[in-house]
Amino acid sequence: MHGASIDLQHAAAKVEQFIMEYGTNDEYLHYSFITNNELLGISDQMTDNIRKKCMEFVKKTYVEAEKLLKEHKDGISRVAELLMKEAIISAKDAEMAFRNEKPKEIKQRVKTH
Q1: Contact by Cβ (8 Å): 51, 4
Q2: What is the average pLDDT score of the chain?
Q3: Whole-number Å distance between alpha carbons of 100 and 77
Q4: Residue 38 phi/psi, 5° resolution?
């Protein structure tokens, strides 16, 4: 199993936790399945349904994230290149690099001990 698969599993577990604890899902908006850190008795069918909803959500957001990364690949690459050169940059410098504008001034920062 590689890092991305593990990340997706962690994301699905976090989404499941939110749905179970806070009811943060359209279908279970006002329900909480956890009280005093204990899982309330719910059916296997409902548990399977919640897990299915979690995976659907994770897959949907993965596709959206992948789309955004592809759309903004050049800008992200420019920011990464600038970070490799400078190590520390300002938010303004990152935004300018992202938009392919030349940063007016990049301050060299020297670590002092």
Answers
A1: no
A2: 77
A3: 10
A4: -120, 135
